[in-house]
Amino acid sequence: MFVLVEMTDTVRIPPWQFERKLNESIAEELNKKLANKVVYNVGLCICLYDITKLEDSYIFPGDGASHTKGKCFSSVILLHFRYVVFHPFLDEILVGQIKSCSQDGVHVSIGFFDDIVIPPESLQQPAKFDEAEQVWVWEYETEEGAHDLYMDTGEEIRFRVVDETFVDTSPTGPSLAEASTSNATEEVQKKEAPYTLVGSISEPGLGLLSWWTNS
């Protein structure tokens, strides 16, 4: 679920932090910049793990801050570090809580990450959506007939990660196609999550934990 990712970046240390240990100041600045942010095709950044390479600091004339030398894509190496990132591998089994249900499927949260969906075709089958209750229901077949097992909000659910989607949400300049204010408003409303996981519960042992307690 969590991986260590090697990264490079430039860190600016403001002058009021000069009295602190350099590594502490750098860690604080990196966490301000990256913690709880999604890096495209990398995952959700959690916290700094360690700094692997740090060169001497220097001060730009006229700039009251320290810049640490490291590696930039275009020129010199500045700062190398490892960051803890949430990025489950495909087929990994996770446990979360049902946040809500809709026609699109079951929406799951694992506390610090909410953009998880289990689409209808990946539920235990046969399944139906109860419009009145706004929940998905597994029509569990037994010798006595079908029993409706409801997937209620707040229930713990075990699922398999089967796919992931990254969306580049970097800011872009205005496009010529956006000729009107209404078009711009629609774009804001259609804002997508930068990182989404797709899950599945369509196999024995997966689904609500309460379903398998007595199995």
TrEMBL record:
<dbReference type="GO" id="GO:0045087">
    <property type="term" value="P:innate immune response"/>
</dbReference>
<feature type="domain" description="RNA polymerase Rpb7-like N-terminal">
    <location>
        <begin position="8"/>
        <end position="64"/>
    </location>
</feature>
<feature type="domain" description="RNA polymerase III subunit Rpc25">
    <location>
        <begin position="92"/>
        <end position="212"/>
    </location>
</feature>
<dbReference type="GO" id="GO:0003899">
    <property type="term" value="F:DNA-directed RNA polymerase activity"/>
</dbReference>
<keyword id="KW-0051">Antiviral defense</keyword>
<keyword id="KW-0240">DNA-directed RNA polymerase</keyword>
<keyword id="KW-0804">Transcription</keyword>
<dbReference type="GO" id="GO:0006384">
    <property type="term" value="P:transcription initiation at RNA polymerase III promoter"/>
</dbReference>
<keyword id="KW-0399">Innate immunity</keyword>
<dbReference type="InterPro" id="IPR013238">
    <property type="entry name" value="RNA_pol_III_Rbc25"/>
</dbReference>
<keyword id="KW-0539">Nucleus</keyword>
<comment type="function">
    <text>DNA-dependent RNA polymerase catalyzes the transcription of DNA into RNA using the four ribonucleoside triphosphates as substrates. Specific peripheric component of RNA polymerase III (Pol III) which synthesizes small non-coding RNAs including 5S rRNA, snRNAs, tRNAs and miRNAs from at least 500 distinct genomic loci. With CRCP/RPC9 forms a mobile stalk that protrudes from Pol III core and functions primarily in transcription initiation. Pol III plays a key role in sensing and limiting infection by intracellular bacteria and DNA viruses.</text>
</comment>
<protein>
    <recommendedName>
        <fullName>DNA-directed RNA polymerase subunit</fullName>
    </recommendedName>
</protein>
<keyword id="KW-0391">Immunity</keyword>
<dbReference type="InterPro" id="IPR012340">
    <property type="entry name" value="NA-bd_OB-fold"/>
</dbReference>
<dbReference type="InterPro" id="IPR045113">
    <property type="entry name" value="Rpb7-like"/>
</dbReference>
<dbReference type="Pfam" id="PF08292">
    <property type="entry name" value="RNA_pol_Rbc25"/>
</dbReference>
<dbReference type="InterPro" id="IPR004519">
    <property type="entry name" value="RNAP_E/RPC8"/>
</dbReference>
<comment type="subunit">
    <text>Component of the RNA polymerase III complex consisting of 17 subunits: a ten-subunit horseshoe-shaped catalytic core composed of POLR3A/RPC1, POLR3B/RPC2, POLR1C/RPAC1, POLR1D/RPAC2, POLR3K/RPC10, POLR2E/RPABC1, POLR2F/RPABC2, POLR2H/RPABC3, POLR2K/RPABC4 and POLR2L/RPABC5; a mobile stalk composed of two subunits POLR3H/RPC8 and CRCP/RPC9, protruding from the core and functioning primarily in transcription initiation; and additional subunits homologous to general transcription factors of the RNA polymerase II machinery, POLR3C/RPC3-POLR3F/RPC6-POLR3G/RPC7 heterotrimer required for transcription initiation and POLR3D/RPC4-POLR3E/RPC5 heterodimer involved in both transcription initiation and termination.</text>
</comment>
<comment type="similarity">
    <text>Belongs to the eukaryotic RPB7/RPC8 RNA polymerase subunit family.</text>
</comment>
<dbReference type="GO" id="GO:0005666">
    <property type="term" value="C:RNA polymerase III complex"/>
</dbReference>
<dbReference type="InterPro" id="IPR005576">
    <property type="entry name" value="Rpb7-like_N"/>
</dbReference>
<dbReference type="GO" id="GO:0003677">
    <property type="term" value="F:DNA binding"/>
</dbReference>
<dbReference type="Pfam" id="PF03876">
    <property type="entry name" value="SHS2_Rpb7-N"/>
</dbReference>
<dbReference type="InterPro" id="IPR036898">
    <property type="entry name" value="RNA_pol_Rpb7-like_N_sf"/>
</dbReference>
<dbReference type="GO" id="GO:0051607">
    <property type="term" value="P:defense response to virus"/>
</dbReference>
<comment type="function">
    <text>DNA-dependent RNA polymerase which catalyzes the transcription of DNA into RNA using the four ribonucleoside triphosphates as substrates.</text>
</comment>
